From TrEMBL:
Pfam families: UPF0102. It comes from the Bacteria. Belongs to the UPF0102 family. This is UPF0102 protein M8A51_19705.
Amino acid sequence: MVTTKTLGDDGEERALAHLLRAGLTLVQRNYRVAGGPGRPAGEVDLILRERDGTLVFVEVRQRRSAAHGGAAASITVTKQRRIVRAAQHFLMRAPTPPPCRFDVIAIDGSQLQWLKAAFTA
Protein backbone atom coordinates (compact mmCIF):
# COMPACT_ATOMS: atom_id res chain seq x y z
CA MET A 1 0.00 0.00 0.00
CA VAL A 2 1.33 3.41 -0.97
CA THR A 3 0.97 5.93 1.86
CA THR A 4 1.54 9.67 1.95
CA LYS A 5 4.67 9.00 4.02
CA THR A 6 6.00 6.59 1.39
CA LEU A 7 5.35 9.11 -1.38
CA GLY A 8 7.06 11.82 0.64
CA ASP A 9 10.09 9.63 1.34
CA ASP A 10 10.34 8.73 -2.35
CA GLY A 11 10.17 12.41 -3.30
CA GLU A 12 12.88 13.27 -0.81
CA GLU A 13 15.12 10.51 -2.21
CA ARG A 14 14.55 11.77 -5.73
CA ALA A 15 15.32 15.36 -4.69
CA LEU A 16 18.48 14.32 -2.88
CA ALA A 17 19.72 12.33 -5.88
CA HIS A 18 19.08 15.36 -8.12
CA LEU A 19 21.00 17.70 -5.81
CA LEU A 20 23.92 15.29 -5.40
CA ARG A 21 24.20 14.98 -9.20
CA ALA A 22 24.34 18.79 -9.31
CA GLY A 23 27.44 18.71 -7.10
CA LEU A 24 26.05 19.50 -3.66
CA THR A 25 27.09 17.40 -0.67
CA LEU A 26 24.70 16.16 2.00
CA VAL A 27 25.19 17.60 5.48
CA GLN A 28 22.03 16.32 7.21
CA ARG A 29 18.56 14.97 6.52
CA ASN A 30 15.36 15.73 8.41
CA TYR A 31 16.76 18.19 10.93
CA ARG A 32 14.04 18.73 13.53
CA VAL A 33 13.53 21.32 16.25
CA ALA A 34 11.05 20.67 19.02
CA GLY A 35 8.19 23.06 19.51
CA GLY A 36 7.33 24.73 22.77
CA PRO A 37 4.46 26.66 24.28
CA GLY A 38 2.98 28.58 21.40
CA ARG A 39 5.78 27.46 19.08
CA PRO A 40 5.24 24.66 16.59
CA ALA A 41 8.06 22.28 15.77
CA GLY A 42 10.23 23.01 12.73
CA GLU A 43 11.99 20.76 10.25
CA VAL A 44 14.36 21.06 7.33
CA ASP A 45 14.10 18.14 4.90
CA LEU A 46 17.63 18.36 3.51
CA ILE A 47 20.69 20.40 4.42
CA LEU A 48 23.40 20.42 1.78
CA ARG A 49 26.54 22.37 0.97
CA GLU A 50 27.35 23.97 -2.39
CA ARG A 51 30.91 23.77 -3.73
CA ASP A 52 31.43 27.43 -2.74
CA GLY A 53 30.54 26.65 0.91
CA THR A 54 26.98 27.98 0.86
CA LEU A 55 24.73 26.00 3.17
CA VAL A 56 21.47 25.14 1.42
CA PHE A 57 18.32 24.37 3.41
CA VAL A 58 15.91 22.47 1.18
CA GLU A 59 12.18 21.89 1.53
CA VAL A 60 10.90 19.03 -0.63
CA ARG A 61 7.25 19.06 -1.67
CA GLN A 62 5.57 16.46 -3.80
CA ARG A 63 2.10 16.43 -5.28
CA ARG A 64 0.48 13.94 -7.62
CA SER A 65 -0.25 16.76 -10.06
CA ALA A 66 0.07 20.53 -10.44
CA ALA A 67 -3.67 20.97 -9.82
CA HIS A 68 -4.60 23.38 -7.01
CA GLY A 69 -1.37 25.35 -7.41
CA GLY A 70 1.09 22.47 -7.31
CA ALA A 71 3.82 21.53 -4.90
CA ALA A 72 5.62 24.88 -4.73
CA ALA A 73 2.43 26.78 -3.91
CA SER A 74 1.84 24.51 -0.91
CA ILE A 75 4.74 26.09 1.01
CA THR A 76 2.96 28.71 3.04
CA VAL A 77 4.50 31.62 4.93
CA THR A 78 3.89 29.65 8.14
CA LYS A 79 5.82 26.68 6.76
CA GLN A 80 8.63 29.00 5.66
CA ARG A 81 8.88 30.40 9.20
CA ARG A 82 9.18 26.87 10.63
CA ILE A 83 11.95 26.02 8.19
CA VAL A 84 13.80 29.27 8.96
CA ARG A 85 13.47 28.59 12.71
CA ALA A 86 14.96 25.12 12.32
CA ALA A 87 17.75 26.53 10.13
CA GLN A 88 18.58 29.19 12.73
CA HIS A 89 18.75 26.49 15.39
CA PHE A 90 21.04 24.40 13.18
CA LEU A 91 23.33 27.41 12.58
CA MET A 92 23.76 28.03 16.32
CA ARG A 93 26.28 25.15 16.27
CA ALA A 94 28.53 26.96 13.77
CA PRO A 95 31.22 29.27 15.19
CA THR A 96 30.89 31.41 12.05
CA PRO A 97 27.70 30.87 10.07
CA PRO A 98 28.37 30.35 6.34
CA PRO A 99 26.35 31.98 3.58
CA CYS A 100 22.92 30.31 3.46
CA ARG A 101 20.06 29.86 1.06
CA PHE A 102 16.54 28.39 1.20
CA ASP A 103 15.66 26.24 -1.80
CA VAL A 104 12.59 24.24 -2.71
CA ILE A 105 12.39 21.04 -4.71
CA ALA A 106 8.84 20.90 -6.09
CA ILE A 107 7.73 17.62 -7.59
CA ASP A 108 4.44 17.64 -9.47
CA GLY A 109 3.71 14.18 -10.82
CA SER A 110 6.93 13.19 -12.59
CA GLN A 111 8.12 16.78 -13.04
CA LEU A 112 10.90 17.95 -10.66
CA GLN A 113 11.67 21.66 -10.36
CA TRP A 114 14.56 23.08 -8.30
CA LEU A 115 13.73 26.59 -7.07
CA LYS A 116 16.95 28.19 -5.82
CA ALA A 117 16.56 30.94 -3.22
CA ALA A 118 12.81 30.28 -3.14
CA PHE A 119 12.40 32.39 0.00
CA THR A 120 14.49 34.35 2.51
CA ALA A 121 14.78 34.41 6.27
